Every structure is written in structure tokens, then in C-alpha cells.
């Protein structure tokens, strides 16, 4: 199923995407399950929101060898973890706002894992049982600040620096799907998720050995080569095959 979070009459709700319509759910699906209200609304008539507001956004850096090479860095034997604040999240169609502190902001299209239950110390074998579904993220980065700061919190944490959506695909199975980004229709990144240095089960297991993941938490799985500067007035698209496309303008 594709689970969307959306605004209806000014109130956030969840729904199941059914073609051009949303089947409205009765509350949060991780709490109330998939009980429906019986109401259907046209998808075109609602404002899609970020599909989850997590307690934390855990990010995996340097997870594609070609991206590590373009950054001039070394491959780590273990996943590289950093965090983004939940205040960085925006939804589909919301604007990425370029901060005055940075002269070079870049896009990073990524497959995002959405956790479905309390997850602590799980094995790789059991990791996927703890997943609610998958969505798309753009790990927007102030690249010049990333280079000058001793750590990445500021460069990765500005408001609007984590577009997320358009929905959660609960039946997605990671198996060679393509991650792609485009700026004004021009392809910038394009790679198979099979090229990840650390795959999805390993990422979930590794993160859960170091911190407890809560329902709705998000893990960004890293970005392939082709990171590119974004400028005001442009349209940024991040696509994951089998999930959809996340579109955001830049201001």
C-alpha cells in the first residue's frame, strides 16, 4: 500500500492511495491500523504532507563508492551515522529555502526507511520486520559549511533541508531499484540501490545497535554520485523506482 499524510480542511490525516483517490484512515495507521472512515477524497484536491514526522532522522553517509570518490573521502568499513533535526522536514511541493549562511547548497536523492515499531539491537536477518515502509528523501546539504565545520549538523540541519515523500510504500522490497535526481528536468544522479556499500538490513541493524529507533523514525540510506548545486527558481525532483517522485521548488 501507499500511505499518504495529507491536509484535509486544515487537519492532517492519513490515507491509502487508491489510483486518483485517497481512502481516508481513522487516525494514525501505526496506532489504529488501517481502519477507514469510509470517506474518499480526490488526490488532486488535497495538500500532501511529509508522510511521517519522526522523533529523529538518522542518516548514513558515504554509502555509495562513487559518491565517496567524488567527495575525495575514504570508504569506512562501518556505516557513517549522522543526524538531521525533524524541523528540517518539508513535504512534497514545499520550497527548499536557501540559507544566507551558505553559498553552495546541493541536492542528495536518497531512499528512506520508515520504522514501524520500537527497534533496538535487531539482527540483519530480522531487520526488515521492523520496517513500516519506504519513502524518498532529499538530504539537502550546505556543502561549503560541511567543508568548513568540524561536523555536519549545521550543513545538514537548516529548516527545509529534508524534503520527504510523497508517501510511504509499504510493499517496497529493496532490490536494485534506481535512485535518480533531476534539476529542471535534467538528470543529475542515477544509480541502483544495489550499489550501496551497506545494504538496508545492515543499516537498520547497525543503527539499532547504537540507538533505539521509534515508530515513524526515518533512516536515510545515502546518496550516489552526481550531487549538484541548486539555485533559486529551480525545480528539484528525487525519484526512487517503485515509490514515486518527490518534487520541490527552490527559493
UniProtKB/TrEMBL annotation:
Domain Rv2993c-like N-terminal per the UniProt entry, residue ranges: 1-51
Domain of life: Bacteria
GO term, biological process aspect, one: carboxylic acid metabolic process
GO MF terms held by the record: acetylpyruvate hydrolase activity; isomerase activity; metal ion binding
Domain Fumarylacetoacetase-like C-terminal: residue ranges: 56-250
Organism: Rhodoluna lacicola
Lineage of the organism: Bacteria, Bacillati, Actinomycetota, Actinomycetes, Micrococcales
Keyword Isomerase tagged: no
Name by which UniProt lists this protein: 2-keto-4-pentenoate hydratase/2-oxohepta-3-ene-1,7-dioic acid hydratase (Catechol pathway)
